[in-house]
Each structure stands twice: as C-alpha cells, then as structure tokens.
Amino acid sequence: MKTYSEARARLRWYQGRYIDFDGWYGYQCADLAVDYIYWLLEIRMWGNAKDAINNDFKNMATVYENTPSFVPQIGDVAVFTKGIYKQYGHIGLVFNGGNTNQFLILEQNYDGNANTPAKLRWDNYYGCTHFIRPKYKSEGLMNKITNKVKPPAQKAVGKSASKITVGSKAPYNLKWSKGAYFNAKIDGLGATSATRYGDNRTNYRFDVGQAVYAPGTLIYVFEIIDGWCRIYWNNHNEWIWHERLIVKEVF
Asked: For the Peptidase C51 domain, which residue ranges apply (predicted)?
C-alpha cells in the first residue's frame, strides 16, 4: 500500500507511457488499471475491464456506484460497463475529479487500437457506472500536521500585492513567498498548467501542457511572474495563467 502523494505521482508518471502489464494484445485499457492497482495494493485484478468491480480488494479499496451527484477523486479507478462498453467494459484512472458533468481520465485504448500510450481525456460519464477508490497508507506525522495548518498570513509584498481583491482575477506579478498569498478557483474556461524553464527571470519560458484543471478547482498561489501564477503540490511547482483564476480568499 502506498501513500496518496505517491499515488498522485504515479499517475503523472503514467502519462505518455505504454503500459502492457500482461504482455498480451497490446496496450489495453485494463493494462493501465491493473498495473496501478498491483503497484498500489499488490492485488492483481482479474477479468475484462467491466469485471474490475467484482474483484476482492481485501478491504483495501471501496467500490462506489456512480450517481448523478457523485464526484470522483484523483486516484480513483473509473469503470464503464454500460452502453457501448457493455460487452467488455472500459477502465481508466481519475486524474482530476472535475465535477458532476465531467472528469479528467487517464486511459489507454480509448480508440480500440491498443497502440497508444496513456493519455488524458475529459469524459462526460457516459457508460461509467462505478468508481474504485483505493485506501492509502498514512503520509506520516509531519504531513498530517502540515495538512492541518492553514497557510500563514502574508505581508503585502511590493505594489502588486495591494491588487489582490476577492472576486477578481489574480494580479500580474507577486514576489516569491513560502506561504500562499491567496487561494483561487479556476474560472469557467478551465486551465492547463505550464512548466517553467530557464535559470533567471530574463530567460524564463512557460510551456503549457503539464496538467488540466476543471472549472471550479481550488488552488493556492505562492508567486506570480508576468501573469504566470505558481501553485505547489506533491513536491513540485506548476504555473497557471492569472486570467484563469478568481480570487476566493486572501491570507
């Protein structure tokens, strides 16, 4: 059993990789899910994709039925058993829980050709009947303490700090800070985060394509460079364009 942080890192590791767990029939959708559960819980799932919900997870995972009000969590396993998926099913990993209308799935073999790597796709829940939610090992005492501590209040840093207003878009520049300046939600257009390259501000480059965030996702901002807002999770930085963020709370 792994920690939740380890599981999230594993999801990111899968992106763009070809997973063939059993060595048969190319890169099937089930190969990805079977590999994930085996890595996470040391349980090898049997059957076709639709059979995943009938596996014995030895009290290390819970199977939930998908309902109109259900919103999955990152790390859940999405199982499709109805409609066009009735015969064999389809399966993938939840990369972003989204909302009741859509979620971001990491999957293989969506097109049926079994020759492409794990990719991200926004799914509208068609045919999705269940979610398998693994249990995770404790992150440890220090992480528990950290997660309970509210981000510390921040002094206004520079002239731009005075521009942070609840309900407005994020400002254009804020100096680096250990603590979050504010939290914000992604606006109705959603957002794709970027990776920053370069060793100083004069040659920074931001390449979009790191991860996709659904509208309404809540994030914390620690710095802004020329419109790019730094968020921090799972021991790494990502950058989101300031116009996609609506300030919810200032610290």
From this structure: 4-133
Write down the catalytic residue from 29, 128, 130, 242: 29
Residues paired with residue 128 on neighbouring β-strands, in sequence order: 80
130 is catalytic: no
Counting as low any pLDDT under 50, the low residues of the chain are 141-161
pTM of the model: 0.59
d(CA 205, CA 93) in angstroms, rounded, equals 30
Is residue 236 annotated as part of the catalytic site, yes or no? Answer: no
| 8 Å CB contact between 249 and 169 | no
Among 135, 96, 63, residue whose Cα is nearest residue 214: 96
Beta bridge partners of residue 238, listed in sequence order? 231
Report the distance separating Cα 212 and Cα 104, nearest Å.
8
Look at residues 117, 99, 68, 62 and name the one whose alpha carbon lies nearest to residue 186.
99
d(CA 23, CA 36) in angstroms, rounded, equals 15
What pLDDT is attached to residue 143?
43
**Which listed residue (6, 90, 130, 242) is catalytic?**
90
Per the annotation, the verdict on 242 as an active-site residue is: no
Pair 49, 33: CB distance under 8 Å: yes
Which of 6, 42, 65, 107 is an active site residue?
A: 107
